[in-house]
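User: Here's a chain of 716 residues. Predict its fold as tokens.
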Amino acid sequence: MFTVDFLADGRVVEWTATDDGADPTIVTDYTPRFFVGPQDPETDIDLSRLRRVYERHPDVVGVEIVERRPGFRRDTERLLAVDACHVDRVTPLARQAPGLDAYPVGDLACYNVDLSREFRYCLERGIDPTPDAELTTLSLSVPVTEPTADTYERMTIAGDTITGSPATILDAVTATIEQRDPDVLVCSTAEIIPTLSRMAEQAGRDEFTLSRWPDVDYQQLAGQSTYTSYGRVGHSPARYNVPGRAIIDESATFLYDETNLDGVLDLVGRSHKPIQELAWASIGTVLTATQVREAHARSVLVPWNSWRHEFYKPMDTLHDADRGGFVFAPDVGIHDDVHELDFSSLYPNIICTRNVSPDVIRCDCHRDRADVPGLDYAICDERGYLADVLEPIIDDRDAIKAAIREERATDDPDQARLAALDGRSDALKWILVACFGYQGFANAKFDRIECHEAINAFAREILLTAKQRLEAGGWAVVHGIVDSIWVTPAPDIPASERTGLETLAAEITDAVGIRLEYEAAYDWVAFVPRRDDGAGALTKYFGRLADTEEYKIRGIEARQRSTPPFVEAVQRDCIDRLGDARAPETVLTRLQTAITRLRTGQVDPTRLTERVRVSKPVDAYTQRTQTVTALERARDQDLSVHPGQQIAYVVVDDDKASRDRVALAHEDTDTYDASYYETQLIRAVESVLSPLGWDRTDIQQWLADTADTTLAAYSE
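Assistant: Prediction complete.
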């Protein structure tokens, strides 16, 4: 089974992919279940009274008293299991629990409530939704100007662009659907689904449908919404379901965008979230689903409103615990012969090797033991559930990376296999990246802040151990952060007395129990200063990899999504020139050439496009920024851009405050504000020259002096 549909009458349709389509299986006996019990195990709750009340509810088809564990740190308790008539009735029934029998608010707790529909079905029925047959896909996309249009006059179907009347578009979609019978619809926006349906209705095409189920064309699962996460505004578009097919909305999928279908399917097998739900899920949601599966296997329920108090700790411990990972500020400047070493999946491996897990951290059975360095937290000897969740992911990613290296080493690498392996590796990487931060996430279902603190404490000790051993082996540390460390030969240690990095890495690996890998050698690396105080920026650097023409760039404009392509290209070229000459003049000459091209109109305006994330509705802005004028221009063209989405534009005249200040990326414009983009170029080149001590004022003065000299020579 790769997808499941819930019909209004309570029936469920499972769809199994085959070599020539998909087979439906109708299920009539599915009743989703949630649980109700006391919030505090010491509270006396009469479950028999609550049972009698629920039994009379019209949306309840079954009630029984069962024994389950309400949490990892609680023993088996008697709880009330409530079976709903439909998956959509679970949450409303759970909301009624506190008032059904007049219990005080806070006395009752509900479990297994807010599970997504398809994931709940797979969890409760023990189904792995990984398809056995290869899935067929069909891509549908519309131009950026038409996502909210009532009808489409242009659509790209499986790579072929169709232009014409609604009837022409509908005929092309119908023909392709009949020919391919896709299992997965990959849409540039999910709004394609209802729009095609409206077009068919207006054209009198009653027979048109994207669905494999004759009675339902499509279902709307959720409306669009705007949310804020850690101060960043995001937008969640409306979600739709087409019976018998999974939908991947390219405008609202992180994991599919960062990996591919193979990566998504790998996570389907680990989380048991079917492909459609997994495609729109966040990394944390997938990690939670994997944890829920482990909890389910241990008869532990999922709390609805998770609340885990922070264990008491004295003030000095609180001060020590409230720290991040290891940071060794970089030495600003250009460093030759630099080597980078990284700990392999440091934080996930700390969790597994040190048994850091919410169910065993600061256990009562070893409360006098000090297992966590600097914090003196105890960790139980019993295996924690989190290690069981993460260890297979770590091992599998190591095996996938080894397979990638082996395939690339062949004379004729299989590119399709490499793409599949890369997708799976990237998918697992994101889960491992998120697992640490999720321990401190307030809305996480099981995790604890003490785990977050313990992981950081172990990481600081591990990096300090590595730093000390590297320095003792004759190497100088020029930068270190979290799980990476950069070294260069210590100037006062003869090469004959210096221990090789491979040897030191092996020794450190044995000492800390986590593999330290030799990541890369650089001919040179430039560490960029912070603009406000000149100290080394922790995440801004660039350097040329040894014996190659490739560069590693982090933090500066060339790595920022908002940077126009032209500015990015100039900055990369300047980095190349800096590496060859180690002097500012060649870089500044390149800058001067780029500015001349700007001023003389030789730059294609499309290469000056900026992409900015919108943080609020256009009317909520108080300043007339470029973003505001771009949003107003989009509104004039009936284009909907919601908070959390991006808007792309070219700055045409930055001195204006009207809509003419910018042109949207899809508009045909042959002009731009050369002065504005000149400032952008200077800022980008400042990042390149700042390791040499140059700032924006120095660059502008050099440009002015060069211009004066050129004009004087011309006048003579």
